[in-house]
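I'd like us to work through together how a protein chain folds, taking it slowly. To get us started, please write out a protein record for me. Go ahead whenever you are ready, and we will take it from there:
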Amino acid sequence: MKTEEFDYVIVGAGSAGCTLAYRLGENPALRILVLEAGGEDRSSVIKTPLLWGLILKNRLFDWGYFSEPEAAMDNRRVECARGKVVGGSSSINGMAYGRGAREDYDFWADGLGLPGWSYDDVLPYFKRSESWEGGESELRGGKGPLTVMNLNFEDPLVGGFLRATERCGYHSNPDYNGSSVEGFGPMQATIRNGKRCSAAVAYLRPALARQNVTLITEALVSRVVLDQSPSPKATGVEYTCNGERFLANVRHEVILAGGVINSPQLLMLSGIGDPVALAEHGIKARVSLPGVGQNLHDHVVFDLRFNRLKTGTLHRMMRYDRIALDVAKNFLFGNGFSGKIPAAAVGLIRTQSQLDLPDAQLILAAGPMTAAPYFHPFVKPYRDGFGIKGVFLTPESRGRVRLASADPAAPMLIEQNFLVTENDRRSVREMFKRMREIAAQPYLQAFVEQEVWPGANCNSDDEIDAFIRRTAITLHHPVGTCKMGSDDDPMAVLDEQMRVRGVQGLRVVDGSSIPRVMRAATNAPIIMMAEKVSDLIVGKELPAVAGKAKSSMPSAASV
């Protein structure tokens, strides 16, 4: 077995891993190794925003995970796409940028006993990470590695949708990552000069240029090496690459950043987890942590779909000659139509008036998932349409991930347990009704030929519930399987500095560390967390925002 030594070994080149490599690599005296199970992110399909649908539909650059049959989803096995490529899921996601509500992080600090994780504590790291097209402000960053822009998708449908939401009593919000998350406005996305700005683009490429960060792809880590004397301490990792076995020793720390499925898997394979569950696979328990793999939860999404009366912007541009020319233009100059995605507008709402905070996100998709280049007029083009996606943001339901085998290459057993509580089912049903109410407004009906999904025969609560069971999927925001928690939480895997409890020199920094999901996509929060932990590792922290200025949460819209 070949052996080498580094100061830090980071397992996973996803959102957190890339960020940690960049920040820790700022010290030229440190040697850092990043191990990624997937390959390079050079494909134009990754780089071109408009081609994102091809990644999801064809499960490209992906681990290929599916859940076990979901009892509350007609026993379907729901796909669980996770990035297996440099950049991780930031290289295959829909590029949405969201932070969540102030109250999400204040709950981490006050409700879960995690000092240092209030909104005022994390805001400086959100700001440090981003370069917002609107520039530096009290709440937004203007000089960070991650480029964030408004999509501003040009289609009259967008204006009709926003006027329909206003007619239903919802207000406009030009920046849902500003002082308030509630209301409707343009989608924000991680796109730079017409190309995806993944964590690899923003953080890892500049880190590699410094020469003290080493990236190895196609590297499957099999276990964390633990020294048990006098107490458990991580001393390195074993991995295979090109059929050879390697040992990477560390002088300081091993940092797992493989994500919500792979990080708990690696802990379990290393003897860290529930001793009873480990024994089932012949693994000796070295550290008893029953919370490893538990607390899995995610955002559920479904959509209403409509045939469009007249062809829209996306449909007109998807003719082969036009889109081919535009892709070339976008690669050369960074200002083509293919440098955007048709997630044209977004809003957070409360499905019930008594709620204090939004529990749903609605997204206008200004084109169908069936959109594809066509040879007009020689071949009949795809049927034009659009959709309204409903995302449930505050799930009570919890699942888990379990080992299927002690083989590191064997996929985990994923039990999402979507919508298993009555509160979750009721909230999703109410979200459906709000979506239908918006779709019924004349401003939007002017674009509708007919509702084709679920159609006019879906009206009663039972019919709505059946439609959701039949069609709902994940929005790919799974979190929580190695959660941070206080000392008195028996299911906490990590402390407030994301150190694995009972083990020296080992942290988990990724979506699995999140104790409760925020009202947003997870990419930006995970990058923020890695920014903050990088400072904790080297013994410094940015000061919290002074004054605790509260967000301006307006009164509930009429529902």
